[in-house]
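Recap quiz, item 2
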Amino acid sequence: MNNEIKKTAILQYLSYFKIWFIILLFFIGGLIVYLTNRKNQTSINSNAPQERVYDYADVLTLEEEELLRQQIQDSESKYGIHIVLVTENKYIPVGEEYLARDIADDFYDTNNYGYNRIHGDGLLLYDFCAGKGDSYAWLSTCGKVENKFSTDDIDSVLDEVYDSNYSCYANAIRRACDIVSDDGILGNPILFPIILVIGIVSGLVFAGVNSVQKKAQVTTNNRTYLSDTPKITYQKDQYLRKHVTSRKIETSSGGGGGGGGHHVSRSGVSHGGGGRRH
Amino acid sequence: MIFTCTNCEGNMVYSPEKKVMFCPYCESQGSQEKRHVNVGNLTKFCPNCGGEIAIGEHDSAMQCPYCDNYIIQDARIEEPFKPDYVVPFKMGKETMKKRFKEHFRKFRFAPTDFLTETRLNSIQGWYVPFWFYDYDTRCTLKGEGTKVRSWTNGNMSYTETSYYDVARIIDIPYNKIPADASVQMPDDVMDLMEPYNYQEMETFQPEFLSGFHGEKYNMTAETLGGRAREKMEKSAKEYLRSTCAGYASFSKNQETVDITGSKISYGLLPVWRYLYEYNGKEYPFYVNGQTGKIVGTAPISKKKVCAYSITFGALVTLLLGILNLYAMLS
């Protein structure tokens, strides 16, 4: 008897959660497929050139260029973004830093970079080499990267470019990828402790909601036991007085806020970014 | 008194579904024979098997614990205990079991054996004694009512409150307000089981008792008169107030319910009772034997609460975790 009851209880339990278990399996399956596909993922934008490292300033050796290409290639498939590095011997005059921004944005746009589409997700680090103290680096972001990179994030990448050499570029790319990895591209992930709290709370709510029972509802009313229609023998509704109150209708007006840091390039593509001298 | 079948001498019982006396042994209908035993005294031994019967202080019908025959105590259904009316059982045991299962099917935290056949077979049909009170009343309500009207003109908003002198005098007749006369049946539960459909009320016949447990009244009509009057007054006052529904607010100055005439009758109403014992505690359930309305709350199995809630919480955590992973990797 006890075994039969236990068996029934298990069957009831499985029957109740079967839809949930199916959904969970579906999600796990989806995740596995996603991870498998992601491993072999390449950019779907075939209009962008294969080259990612343009060392016009010739500050890198061929081996360093190759190492950077390898690093970029690994990171691109992992994070789903295009990563481009450009160096050029050019002095950006003080007060005309917008030139750096325009050149970097134009480079990204004219070469049709963007991992998911032309002018899609990606970032470009443009280093205008003009000697210590006069060089200027600009980080141009586009697509979902633009939305995800805050001013602080851009600063933290540019912090790495204190000189025009291989290790600075490699560290800057690594830092940018860390930011992408930390924050995700499609949305802000929730921290695991928060998920755990949500799980615990939902379990408690489930227990509470399903434990509520009502003994029974009252199904009688003031007419249940009437044997006949009540007879009104006297009724009075006599007007006595009235009073009127008035008040002024208050109207309110409000304003909206704005954002900053984003701009549209000369070719009409939305970019984010920032730069600094080094 | 015991009803036996003229065909097979088996114990005949009243069948709620068939609405006739029925022999569960040879399945014949209407072939009952009334056998009186110990007229005027209590029948302490089963007329069928001779087994001793435990008779409660107020029991009028019971089942022999040895041969399961239903015995009716003549002395407790005759004057001064003869009921005027009876509402016969309309739903039989099998129907009740089905209703129970349907009612508690969705309650996941009930112990697993709560709705098993073995447990549900212990459901017993009881005829509960009730006093019925008829009242003719004259009800008076006087007070001040308000009506509110609002409008706007330009950037000004206006509210006009009008005051009225309101009075009502209404004759309200009440028919058979029930008050259960059984000590073992909780008053609040019996109130929740109302209403019964009096259209199906019948003049009392002992046949209706065969197959069920029954009681004579435990308390007199005078003792319960206050409770019935309280129910009537509550209902009358609600009715009076409903006639002033057109007012936004109402403050009463006078509210009286005067009884101009009354009549008392005695009858039996059908109740199914299921006693479920869990962790040393009794959980009683009552069902209106005519309408099928169920009163009672199921016990909660802590093991089930833990298993289901932890699983639910874990599933939510896992699904959110996976979604989060998607977001992180994308």
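Chain B has two domains: 1-76, 128-299.
Chain B touches chain A through 80 residues (CB under 8 Å).
End of item.
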